[in-house]
Design goal:
The chain has one domain: 4-Layer Sandwich (Deoxyribonuclease I, Chain A), CATH 3.60.10. It is built from eight helices and 18 strands. Helix 2 packs across helix 3.
């Protein structure tokens, strides 16, 4: 009887010990964003202005060019995996035409072993480009997916559009995906805010940020303690009004209050970093922000950490082969087309990412 009791006690201690080890296991995840720059297939989508990306279109977008584009995007994702020794657990993407191009991308032999799943909704953009989220289901368990449409229901913003222009305006929806990352509740927003073409749209980008922020407030009330990452091509820099005022972005983590977001790329912009270049100036439109719950997470839970020079909490990823080697655009991102000609590059944006860990 004593021997049996001893075995029971030892067994119980082993179970408790095992559970403690599992709970204390170090978990580290890479979370990022990449504007894939016009990842179109070679087929026409009804109701969309994708004609320049057809075989007989302006860009003579053939299957050979399409396959080269897929290969290049996968090459960058693979290179990030090689640098970090793990694939992104979650990777937001923009400028993708449909689910089909994403399926071709995640099945490319270079990255097929990542086992990425796709969260995506077809949106109303006139050209047909959307945002999406690629995720590893063994790391991130999806519980809810939501497509947030753009609207003009703001009390704080005066829009530079009349009623007819508003009725005809179309832009990308914002994607929200909620689930469990490492057993903790997370929500990821992926956005591609309205363009800067013509030097306009600041009011529209502010409204996009306002939509994201209001939905994040609702999630934080519904799920106390939820950790939120907002990512996307914001078509604004981290120091623009959309990000500092309407997204409540703070440069310094110590200044982040309950209703704020930590904006790690703000200090990087000031330090001269850039994810895209325009007219000789570097910008960071490819932004990730994290809420208070992730910026100042309790010890032993997932939190954002510095990853560049032990100082910056964001990383702008680029290798020499991702930049233009010579000519007018030397040293800027090597894109797919240049001056109307297919040059077989990657994207006009560099990808960006953060790292979260529960390591003390």
């Amino acid at each position: 009887m004593k021997k049996l009791l001893t075995y029971i006690i030892l067994g119980s201690l082993l179970v408790i010990s095992s559970n403690c080890l599992a709970q204390n296991k170090v978990k580290t995840y890479v979370i990022g964003f990449y504007n894939l720059e016009n990842l179109f297939d070679t087929y026409h989508d009804d109701g969309k202005n994708d004609f320049e990306y057809l075989p007989d279109g302006l860009n003579e977008w053939t299957d050979v060019k399409y396959q080269k584009k897929i290969h290049n995007m996968a090459k960058v994702i693979k290179a990030m995996k090689e640098e970090n020794h793990v694939y992104h657990a979650v990777l937001g993407v923009s400028e993708i035409e449909n689910r089909h191009v994403l399926e071709d991308l995640v099945n490319d032999p270079q990255i097929a072993d990542a086992g990425y799943m796709i969260a995506h909704f077809d949106g109303p953009d006139n050209r047909g480009v959307d945002v999406a989220l690629l995720y590893q289901p063994r790391k991130f368990e999806v519980l809810d997916e939501e497509s947030l449409p753009f609207n003009f229901n703001s009390e704080a913003i005066v829009f530079d559009m009349d009623s007819t222009e508003k009725a005809n305006f179309r832009t990308r929806d914002i994607l929200m995906v909620r689930g469990l990352l490492g057993g903790e509740m997370f929500a990821f927003f992926v956005a591609h805010l309205p363009s800067r073409i013509g030097g306009k749209g600041g009011d529209l980008r502010s409204r996009g940020a306002e939509i994201i922020y209001k939905r994040s407030e609702e999630l934080m009330k519904e799920f106390p303690g939820i950790k939120i990452v907002v990512m996307g091509d914001m078509n604004d820099n981290p120091d623009d009004e959309s990000m500092t005022v309407f997204m409540h972005g703070k440069e310094n983590i110590e200044d982040v209050g309950d209703g704020d977001f930590f904006s790690p790329f703000l200090s990087m912009l000031k330090a001269g970093y850039g994810s895209l270049a325009y007219q000789g100036a570097w910008n960071i439109y490819d932004i990730l922000l994290v809420n208070h719950n992730l910026a100042k997470a309790p010890e032993g839970t997932l939190r954002i950490i510095p990853i560049v020079r032990k100082k910056f909490f964001g990383r702008i990823f680029h290798k020499p082969w991702m930049a233009t080697e010579e000519g007018q655009y030397k040293d800027v991102p090597f894109r797919t087309f240049s001056n109307g000609a297919f040059v077989g590059g990657f994207s006009d944006h560099y990808p960006t990412y953060i790292v979260v860990t529960n390591k003390n």
